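User: Show me a protein chain along with its predicted structure.
Assistant: Here is one chain, sequence first, then structure tokens.
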Amino acid sequence: MSDIRKIDEKGQKRRLKVPLTRIISFSFGGFVAVALALVLYLSVLANFKNTFSLLNDKAILITQAIDRQLRDHFASVEQAVVDVKPFFDNGTISFDNVDEALEKMSLAVASNSRINVLVATDLNDDNFGVFKGPNGKLWPFKRQIPPGGERTYMLPRLTVDSGPTWGALLHNDVGQFANVSVPLVVDGKMIGTLTAASSLKALGRAIHSLDEGEDSTTFIIANGDDVVVHSDMKVFQTGEVTDKTLPVAREDLGDPVLAAMNAADRLESFQKAAELGIEVSRIETADDEFIMMRVVIPGYSDEPWIIGQYFRGVTISREVRRLTGSAAVGIGALIIAVLVAIWMGRRVARPLKALAKQSERVGSLALDEVEPLPRSRVQELDQVAVAFNSMVDGLRAMNTYVPRSLFAKLMRLGGKDAAGAREAELTILFTDIVGFTALSEHMSASETASYLNDHFAILVEAVESEGGTVDKFIGDGMLAFWGAPDARADHAAAAVRTARNIAAALQKVNDQAEERGENRLCMRIGIHTGTAVVGNVGALDRWNYTVVGDTVNVTERLQTLGREVGDGDEVVILASAETVARLPAEPGKDHAGEFSLRGRSTSLEVWKLDPFCAAPDTSDVLSPTAAE
């Protein structure tokens, strides 16, 4: 049987194979039956799901955004004392050389826009540091903080092993300040404290930017019950106006929503937010109803802070209250259905998803990127994996001998029909390395192969970038053509662009070779346009997609003619009049004359093309029929 484990002839356990039909009938069938039985009931709870999900996500996003803003603000303040501390600990700066210490501390304060005071205090409470005034000016001081900077920080109790420690928030005429301290330790003994203080004004502006409009208010409560940041200090949402300056005790601020915060009704349904420490509650005032999201965070004072936001929510909270009573059964069924669906979906879809992904790569002939499909316990999927992997291995072997671009074109155009031998107007390009025979005499077989492989890689890239097809490599030469298997009106222009791209690439290679003290390489390129037979040529199981005919022979003769016409040129490109006639906008052409080529009874008009001329505009290239 296919669903039990057996022992094969080699004594190895066979992999358990489970038919896909059995999985669908027993698993998905049972799931669908349960889902259909509950569909009418669960439809009543659809609105609850949407409302609950949106509010949950909103609560999480808002509080996390405020939390990130807060942590980003104070992280740079904390980092400042952490960065300066090693200079004291290793003796680079010390209490014995205050001037040098103040110079380095001034640099730290000037480079950090969030620090207002940076002060070092020894064990005798003598201190020195740098104070940044409201106008941004730096005031180095010794023992006495400049006017306006007093009571900006408070030293906490530290030991040699203490990390960055935040002290109590302090308030003076300039504003509110949070401060963080680290111990200064030399040879295992504490010699003092380094403290940085930061004004909450900049934090208030940053928090205010998170306010979503006039129907929402963002706040921070610290120092026990003092409101230190409030985004709507001019006019509260409830209409009250205040003239007080922060910090203010929560109940004395005049905001009725914050005043009633401790009496809020907590919404227990927001489990997702609660798991992250976010409390979502409903607050009723005399004239309105609000939804508040808040979270307690430690770390930036001697007491925890409360950050949060509230917004008008009469309609939302009413919907939540109406749907909460009927949510328990629906949520339970929904969770079960989701868990089953996820398990079954992953179980079945994972190999199919991998198959689709790898098949897409096969379709684009990116065979080097195809990863083998893993074996599966599902019988049908395991058979597909084995067959697919074997197919890819075969394609990779075939692609070694069939040009990838040709393979892709034939697949796109229909394979057998597109590859049938036919006559077509093509532009043929033939290349040859000047003097390669003499050059190869001084190379080993492996060096010759490596040299040609690098050279052909340049040629193939140039041809395929212009949509051409590489037919074959003949010695150190290459035969390529345009116009088949897919027809195109600009096949002549594409061939000329390719020749010039080859010339540009060869020039770079030659420059590099010259820097290494090697000889520069010269090339001849022939281009001719005419009718040729293109398609599968061969017999039985030995077929070759190629071009044959007089047009190919003429192209080879043109390349050979380069010995006479372009003798001494690094790259000589000769094109027939038939090719040039299809390039009316060609600027880089020079009439070379009429020549009698070997094997032809009539002479051929030949043009020499500038290999480094800018590509012409081919938008007005006409076919011979249109030109007439």
